[in-house]
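Example 3.
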Amino acid sequence: MAPQAPNTEVLDEHLKEVVTALTSAVNWAMPHLKEPKIVDKAIHDCQEILDVVMEGKVSEWLD
Amino acid sequence: MFTDKVELTDFEKMDPEYRDLLGRVLAIQADCEIGGPHLYLEQILPNAPTKLDQLIVARTAAEEIDHYRKIARIAGDIGVDVSFVLSRSNQERFVESFRGQITTWEDFAVFGFLIDRVGRYQLEEFLDCSYTPLEKILPDVHKEEAGHIDFGTNMTSELAAKGGESKEKAQKAVDFWYVKGLDMFGKSESYRSERYRHWGLKRRANADARQDYTNEVNPLIEQMGLQIPDPNKNRLYI
């Protein structure tokens, strides 16, 4: 079997958590589109999570 | 032509050319998956027209990150680390369409309509491919990409139907992304494309896939009342 690249599993697990958090925030807000507080909070949470992913400091995620 | 199925446990025994091509195509696919959110999130998430649109942008990005994760896992399992694409600048992307930034809602819509559709074609190349772990992740990824394409297509259609300035902006975005989409299929005469097909890693020649795409997308552009751009203008690859 080929040797696995370093951090393959830990990065996979981390990104699974990221995706779950994003999906949960969106799914939580979708039925509440007429309630600005809920929707704004969800968008804010998504923005925060996505900012970290886009920054791409992978070594910090894996600490 | 290679017709066997290859599992992870077989990978080390494969010809070096096969291993090299699989690693290469996975790195490019991973780069394209994460390249999308890098193009549009900064400007489009905070500025999408409605709260619903903002949530859809966030969900789209989440799905693309998950596609990256799935491809990165397959690559990592064969010893290919593709995490470097998470931190590279847009200008370093493998594919030209992902270099730059999307700053308007029209461009975001047309990106879904035209470029995510090319992404679907790229994924379809792996249907029934020789590397089984890659084939296994396709159904879910393909389904989510179809959702992005539908959203982009419907949004572009709505923008065009409004007429006036909205239609002009939609046409401008179509003009920009159409040729980039055609270029994404690569050179028509490509030795590497032939080797991908030899090893069962892709199904179609670049020119054939591009023609299939054109046959699909041109009638959609016309149905929206928009003009089909000149397919030879500003092209990088013919």
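The two ends of chain A are 27 Å apart (CA to CA). Chain A has a mean pLDDT of 96.
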